Amino acid sequence: MEENGVVRVADDEDFKSFRRLADGVEGWSNKYDKNGIRVWLQSKFDPETRIRLIKVHKMLHDVSAATTYDVLHDAAYRKKWDRTMVEGFELCKVNWTNDISYYQMKCPPPLRNRDFVMQRTWLDTGTEYIIFNHSVYHKKIPPKKGVIRGYSYLTGYLVRPKGSNACEITYVTKSDPKGSIPSWMINKLAHIFAPKVVDRLHQACRDYPKWKSKHDPRYKPWLYPEQMSLPPLDPSDLLSKEECISDNSLDESDIKEEDFKDSDLQDEDF
Fold first, then answer.
1. What pLDDT does 184 receive?
2. Region Disordered: which residues (predicted)?
3. CA angle centred on 226, ends 218 and 73, rounded to 5°
């Protein structure tokens, strides 16, 4: 599933692999189980990337799986609820269930902002919803001055209904913030940020039906492909990793943990 920078349409085996990650327990260690959120860390350490897979699971007792799936897709709504997003947009379609998109996230000082260019894939089986992405390289979204280009090896969601107005969601992520960020900060970001993503998503799902009823309620191209207006991917726009070098002048290697005493990363529960 994890093919560095490769753009291709996901197949059945890719979705099976993602389900195994989301549902599996072997090779995972439980790090947190409180307030309805469970967090696991993959036991195996990848010495090349310095990154472990993180998995977060939560039952959403007051929102449907369909609503959760809509919220994960709705780019217009994300601008309202995702307070870490600086900029985000869909660039082009690979096919009706795959696109290439851009996301820049605000990081708390003294960290620099990060951005990602990703191929996103989705599937609605009728009994579950799956969305996952990995980083790719595209000519029309070059690295930006002052922003560090991060890398998503794999990030995604598995959503299953648990009744008419409840669902369970599993969030899996293996992302490298890149730059010269210290290893202790990578671990801190992963342990704290991933659960917060799910918590903020839950609140966004509660508010979505009311918001959507007033904002083009019938427009859902992730459900109705005929509504998708994205231009098709031009294969000549795809680049290699070597052609997309981030701003190497941004040095964060001297960051100390006390620099984050009052930042949004602090959370005594994690």
1. 64
2. 247-270
3. 60
Low-confidence spans in the chain with pLDDT less than 50: 262-270
SS3 174: strand
Q: How far apart are the first and last CA of the chain?
A: 29
Is the distance from CB of 184 to CB of 257 less than 8 angstroms? yes
Using an 8 Å Cβ cutoff, are 190 and 42 in contact? Answer: no
Tell me the residue type at 73. Answer: H
Residue 51 burial by Cβ neighbours in a 10 Å radius (0-12, 13-18, 19+):
buried
Predicted confidence at residue 51, as pLDDT, reads: 79
Whether residue 110 is preceded by a cis peptide bond, meaning omega within 30 degrees of 0, is: yes
pLDDT for residue 264: 47
- How far is Cα 147 from Cα 115, in angstroms, rounded to an integer? 7
Residue 88, token pair as written in the block: 């985000």
CA distance 186 to 51: 8
CB 202, CB 63: distance < 8 Å: yes
Would residue 108 be called left, alpha or beta, if left means φ above 0 and alpha means ψ between -120 and 50 degrees?
beta
Domains of the chain: 26-213 (3.30.530.20)
Residue carrying structure tokens 């029309």: 140
In terms of DSSP H, where are the helices of the chain?
Answer: 12-23, 65-73, 75-81, 183-212
Burial of 126 (0-12, 13-18, 19+ CB in 10 A): exposed
Q: Each residue of 202-232: pLDDT tens digit? A: 999 999 999 999 999 999 999 999 999 999 9
Q: At residue 130, what is the residue type?
A: I
